[in-house]
Amino acid sequence: MIIVNTDYISGKEIETIQLVKGNIVFSKNVVRDIFAGLKTIVGGEIKGYTEMMNEARQKATERMMGEAAMIGADAIVNVRFTTSDVMPNAAEVIVYGTAVRFKK
Fold first, then answer.
1. What does the radius of gyration of the chain's CA atoms come to, in whole angstroms?
2. What's the predicted TM-score (pTM) here?
3. How does pLDDT run across 37-85, given as a tens digit for each residue?
4. Is the N or the C terminus of the chain less surrounded, counting Cβ atoms within 10 Å?
């Protein structure tokens, strides 16, 4: 499935189906928090959190693609990600876009 953050796909004429989305709520790991706290003292990337966020975005994207596949989409355009806190130490990653079919 083609996924783009533009509202078009070069060389394709598309027909809009509907909005599709995927999300995941994840919580921080206590051990990871301890190491993150230590890392903030010396500075630099907190790799454990980077990996956690990458995994969360991937899972949310897979869920969005599954929803699009269920309605017969060929692609998803205008894809956007957002993150929000849902409670202390837990956040949600949401990805959404417009499911489309290619015109014949």
1. 17
2. 0.84
3. 555 666 677 777 788 889 999 999 999 999 999 999 999 999 999 999 8
4. C
